[in-house]
């Protein structure tokens, strides 16, 4: 050591000298702080460690910082290690000897965190930072550094780590942690050729509780159910919150019979007694769907999907019951079909293979084309066309219909801008009525080409209109403010009341073709169509009869006062833009 000082004396001088001391790095500065006071205030102690002799020398504040009453307890690396809490991933000795670094003369840095228990029943978390220096053989010979108390910080970080893996309401695993646990259990079952089970437990009618008492009471109910489920769990099994009103349960080494027994036990614990909340007592039931893996699911995705299938089956049959997953070729084929349809729709959107088809709508009195309904078609890579019937149902199931709606709106608006005398209608799905992206597209075009927007008719189905009259009324008002007209499609299928029809303020009703096509075979259908036409005329609404197949039907509709006709008689669906020179390419089938 320099200047002939013994190591401990030098270390004491480092932490006790103040102004002008080289060790503080503040030489020549008046009023420099006392180093020992600084170290005490930040809960930090310096040390030097002779690795060869295992001698550990500390600054004079070390016993105070580390909360030890006997300095001998930290006088060597071995003794200091005895204070460490069992289970720490790495101690200082491991950090130094296993660092893999090479000392080039400036030492090799290290930094670790570990827990100490200087007094039985107490825990002190510290951050240990320093550098080790090599001896002649290149191996670690000595080290120096500082130990800082970080108990509060460690508690905060541990809390954050806990919240990252656990549900804040129930204290059980959150969805991400539950899926990780399911993956580990499934891997274990595959490795040892055993089986496990996954259950989804759904609290019945939680929405009713939220509506009746408020979400706070709903949360109390969820937390109470979580506690009841936990009380009935085996120690080897796992419980987590899968979603709002659902818990996931992982059963290790479980057969089909074991799963059924566990499900009955969990259902009983939910319903066996009232659940007490801050507003009173509630009676709850649960419904469970479960699956055995890897027998009925070799991946986590399959296991979860099939447990959800079983849960939906149980809900359809009888709430408050348990249903195990049973393979169904039809259901698996539908799932595969959905996956294919999703890929095809997304690819068609990305590759710009969505095209318009035009179905003419003619005036009943003159038989001249008044406007065109724009229908969706997908051009397949081989050139074949897929119509709406092969696209829309799958798109609605998969939540992709609003993307198709937006693309259709873009295409129709472009056609209106390119063809000044074109009037066109386009269908709007329920998902797009409140979709901000769809509205953004319409409003942007309306600002640029207000005249084009005035030639656009937006069609919504009657079922959509009556499901939420207030929401539909807002849609109608907003669209008409942009200059668009509104038509109710398939009118008559949903039996809209006279009052609601008047409230909506639409411009046109399109009478459901199922009634129109049978007018001459069904007296009731003929009366119904006539009533719809009279209702429209009485409210000042234009009327369109769909699925008009022949001249006889068209003449009767004209006599009844129908304004427009649509169907095979009016003309075939065409891919050719109206008014474009050339021969139109017709598409088989007038119904879009």
Task: Give a brief rundown of this model.
The chain is about 40% helix and about 20% strand. It is built from 23 helices and 23 strands.
Within the largest sheet, what's the order of strands?
A: 13-14-16-17-18-19-20-21
CA(first)-CA(last) distance: 93 Å
Q: How would you classify the helix and strand content by structural class? A: alpha/beta
Helix count from the secondary structure assignment: 23
Query: How many strands, which pairing sense, and closed or not: the largest β-sheet?
Result: 8 strands, mixed, barrel
Overall geometry: elongated
How many E-type strands? 23
Mean pLDDT across every amino acid position = 87
Rg, Cα atoms, Å:
38 Å
Q: Approximately what portion of the residues adopt beta-strand conformation? A: 15-25%
Uncertain runs are: 1-6, 17-30, 581-592
User: Level of helix content?
Assistant: 40-55%
